[in-house]
## 1
Amino acid sequence: MTAPAPKKVVLAYSGGLDTSIILKWLQTEYGCEVVTFTADLGQGEELEPARAKAELLGIRSENIHIEDLREEFVRDFVFPMFRANAVYEGLYLLGTSIARPLIAKRLAEIAAETGADAVAHGATGKGNDQVRFELGVAALNPALKVIAPWRLWDLTSRTKLLEFAEANQIPIAKDKRGEAPFSVDANLLHTSSEGKVLENPADEPPAYVWQRTVDPEEAPNTPEMVEIGFECGDAVSVNGERLSPAALLAKLNELGGKHGVGRLDLVENRFVGMKSRGAYETPGGTILLEAHRGIEQITLDAGAGHLKDSIMPRYAELIYNGFWFSPEREMLQALIDKSQEHVGGTVRVKLFKGSVRTVARWSDHSLYSEKHVTFEEDAGAYDQKDAEGFIRLNALRLRLVAVRNARAKG
């Protein structure tokens, strides 16, 4: 039985050519009402043109939603992730991955607010984003139908897309008539570039791919010191100035970008099974990760820190694969947040020629005891003779194994 056509659809809408084509396709394919949702996540683009484009395509003003989500994005998604020091496959700071659950959340909420029975997105059938959007919506409102036009329509080439746009009087920017050199996704945490000139991993990314950071070789010849204050695992100030989450990340982006910090050329494993090459820029996030690890070095107990590090790859994988709203991610988050209760203080980092390095850290919650580790007289703070029994007990099982092995050989 053919599923009934949706009556009202909330579309994740950028105002660009592809989502404008999707908007018109939804209207023509289903004859449905379309509600557009455009999120400002700090991508650095003027979003009001999306309103004008939607109106041009027949969307009523009350059905156009353009929202500034920068503070919510950093406070409720980026910061919790950074408490975990989450890094996918050892390198990737998950800049695109962590933005998708917030978009999915607002799609589901706007659908409820407007009485829509479906949502739609512009992710292709080859990528991770389709999974992230749809898992998020399924977790938040399983009754919603999800429409993924790239998996449904016959507009399978750039030529067909342009022909559809022209036939439906959708404005086409001149640079869209040719093949784009690469695809860009941006938000306050990072910039991601993929495809076209980047598809061959044997070729170095062209210089023009990098948009948020200066070439480290061209960065200032003088290092810059930056002090970052933390409370309960979250950064709260830069150089003594208390800032909101979004303003703080924007400040770190500015500082890191100036010094060429945060570039990454990565071939990663997509959840859907293929490998993908991307050029990522995460200047503020790279500084934040280094500083957070710096403050944890003196405030986090060894057992807690080692346990936290052991679960981090699983936590990062859950975010990458789209399971932000899963029970297991929420369980891990509770553990991570518990570990951060005393992670507060100040870290000084040095920015220089593409690198960021912790050079000092201090905290009222520090577990570091100079009198215990000093090479000078420790005034009885630590009895070195205690180490003998400690070593003998830990060596016991190794001695027993050695004896057993020698006996077996004999």
## 2
Amino acid sequence: MTSAPQTSPAPLTIGPLTLDVPVVLAPMAGITNTAFRRLCREYGAGLYVSEMITSRALVERTTESMRLINHHESEKTRSIQLYGVDPKTVAEAVTLLVAEDRADHIDLNFGCPVPKVTRKGGGAALPWKLGLFRQIVEGAVTAAGNVPVTVKMRKGIDSDHLTYLEAGKAAEGAGVAAIALHARTAAEYYSGQADWSAIATLKDTITSVPVLGNGDIWSAEDALRMVAETGCDGVVVGRGCLGRPWLFGDLAAAFRGGESGAAAARIQPDLGQVADAFRRHAVLLTEFFESEERACRDIRKHVAWYFKGYPVGGDLRASLASVVSLAQLDDLLGTLDGDQEYPGEGAEGPRGRAGSPKKTSLPEHWLDSRELVSAERANLTEGEGDTSGG
């Protein structure tokens, strides 16, 4: 196995943006809202991307989409991810963000494997239609002007329908500022092991812009190993930070000091520190939602992630997962033995649902041609119909 680098890497440049730590928080629906981004930033450094926002919802200025594109004043680099399947609508959404000075970086989602997205031809399904993919990216880059546009994608639909190399070259030709690859197909969902060799292949193929690797980064050591093995210019971290916002502190130490720096500065919180982070997350959610009740509903899904491996009983976990107020949350957290030490391996490794390989939901006859046929083009409007905002 190739050893991890021992010296600090060069800063990551994405258009006019320079990141001294080449780390990006992956957009995650229902997770990477302002509250979670702020919490992660308090521990580390890098680029923190919003949850996915539907282009049509943004163009129609729905209440939810307009709330999701807001950033806290502490977020100096405002990064927004857009999803869409219609070039015109995506370009209009980008134009809105730029004209109203709402973003410093825009990412385009071509990696989502969720059936409700792929069955409309979006997310990881879309690069199969290479011409459509190119139109969307070119239109977004043109509309963005000086604001850098990046793309995040998967290897393809399945092992028989890989798209990442052609899509990567098309995106590079369209003028994107960076390309991120989640090294799984849509059919793999989050199962099995990410194919880091695909990241290396993409890095060898794309020569003019940074290539970022995504998939199975559960620790800072994993991030260093990915860079060493693939040559990628930076890493995108998703599920590995669920319930572990301090991972970004580990990552910053690792990239600034190499493997030895990562080991020396590794954050291993006791139960009291985890409880403090959990409560801080709830407080930030309260600010974001402007509702304590809604914040408490939202924090419930984070309980299992934060307390993974710690000696927290089932009854208490259940109570935390049904909390209705910050006062109740304080009472429950007050019953914990905060001096319980970091449990090691039990708190580490994979988190979040991996799922299992499955046939990807696609529009009828989607795989018959790499180009968009007239009947499919007519259905693009339907594909933009989800105006939920993410």
## 3
Amino acid sequence: MANSIYNINKGVNKSIEFRGLKAQYIWYLAGGLIGLLILFAILYVTGVNTYICLMIVLGTGGFLFTWVYRLSNKYGEHGMMKKAAQRMLPHVIRCNSRKQFIKQ
């Protein structure tokens, strides 16, 4: 009787990671790069010098890369969503009367 060999996918519930970027930060970087491409096209069509267009796009692209990688390293996979949810919570709950706690 022959034994069957099954390939087991061990990364089923793991989040997507690409060169150190985790989860949603890949999409942030992709959106930023598309925005930079559009910015370059607009600058080029309006008649700005090609080298100035390249300096602007490369400078903002470098800033975009460092900013997204810093966010990914600081907050991790779900940390930025947790930080946004934490901002929605009230700092203090005040109750100036006892009516809430007395049965009527």
## 4
Amino acid sequence: MSQVKKVVLAYSGGLDTSVILKWLQETYQCEVVTFTADIGQGEEVEPARAKAEAMGIKEIYIEDLREEFARDYVFPMFRANTIYEGEYLLGTSIARPLIAKRLVEIAADTGGDAISHGATGKGNDQVRFELGAYALAPDIKVIAPWREWDLTSREKLLAYADRHGIAVDKKPGEKSPYSMDANLLHISYEGGILEDPWAEPEEGMWRWSVSPEQAPDEPTYVDLTYRKGDIVAIDGDDLTPAVVMETLNKLGSANGIGRDDIVENRYVGMKSRGCYETPAGTIMLKAHRAMESLTLDREVAHLKDELMPRYASLIYNGYWWSPERKMMQQMIDASQENVNGTVKVKLYKGNVCVAGRKSDSDSLFDANIATFEEDAGAYDQADAGGFIKLNALRLRIAARLKRP
């Protein structure tokens, strides 16, 4: 422990990371650098500075990473139509590689020889943080207090904070019974009554969205403009990736969109029940598939769908910086060269419906061929007979063998 001279801590300013900060100073007798990231969690991050200063921290990093998060992590993931186990849009998972990257970069800039995080020993985040850190800085030391200390309950954490004079925001009656994580893509809820998979979430749990029942009786129509697989404008207004997500979060939340209740398989081996609000992501997934339906070659689209579960697992399990994820990303990005155009979506009481799609330059839809009317010889229907017989040949041979 004495070999650690300086550690960079992922610091929120809350109870857990404030206790970790003091514990690192006490246990490792080392200097601590704090890093606080704004990735769109909707809470002020600047108060973390005063808390860190009060605990004697000299090097404090507070950074607005919303645009980088949206542009370099969320948008590339949605080019692949990524969804884990058919339901989860990976809101927590995709934020971890960015935080891991900045932790090791700050360690290099400040002469730090270790990083630390507040993820527990039961969850996926410890894996994501540490795989990311080792991929980028193979010799970095990682300190995970929840795997080392005996402060295994909130009561013990509070007692430790009292003993060491750590200021903790205490608001009786206002503490949420849920463990929550939020960023531009989602907010998640775990713990409390959610530990019973049969228990329906309380309506008061949801922070972002109205219930579908309380959503407006009139639908909201939105035009999303795509360029190379990314949304670049909403209703004709050019927007940056982060502002695209902020705008869609507001529109989706107002229409009861993005709620999900999932039992998922964690990488560490257990099943976990969590609830999520992902308004922007829910809209983005539906609209992107609509844009691809018009502009992607059939076999390219099908190949992407075959690869997507593997790509999703890589992100969920913490392998964003792995060579296989990077290789797959190059292929995915190449497929998006002609994914250009506009999708009109209708948002209504929890539903995202595609109301229209068009691409002036890259549409593969040819009305002259697809029509039920006369097609001026573009498609000879008689050709289909030979096509069917050739494709049925192996089936007919097998069926003849089964004759009595």
